[in-house]
Amino acid sequence: MTENALTRPNDLHLKYHWCEGSVPPPHYYEYTIAIGPGARGEMTLCPDYAMGDPPVWSESFAVSEGALDDLYQLMLQREAFRSDWASIQDPPVGGSLEWLEVRVEDEHFRIPAKIVEAESVEPVYAAIRALVPQPIWDTLMGLREQYEQEFSDD
User: What pTM was computed for the model?
Assistant: First the structure.
């Protein structure tokens, strides 16, 4: 990536992943938020472990150019465009995980889960989650709750 690139490149593409900790079905779920390239986004939610062949729901949304610019600046400030993340030596067992994959200017960056610098990148993750409109969160989490209830009724 170009040093000190303050202007957001047009080809910025990121994929944020979040998954619940190890819990019994149907309490596990995971979601992905993909942004770009450009001002498009998509959130995909899977309400259970993949081995049970659960449904997968996706919702698309638009992202403003200003919000993308702000996210890019935050990623620069938080040094998200690097490859030298320090892994936690003895990570705790359980708990949710989150990680980020980024493609920009023909380069690929990955912020792994369970890193020492997790606190530093949390604002980036929060900004990505905030790009998803609340009605989409409500819809997908409502579907997840319905799935969980139907699973419990069986």
Answer: 0.92
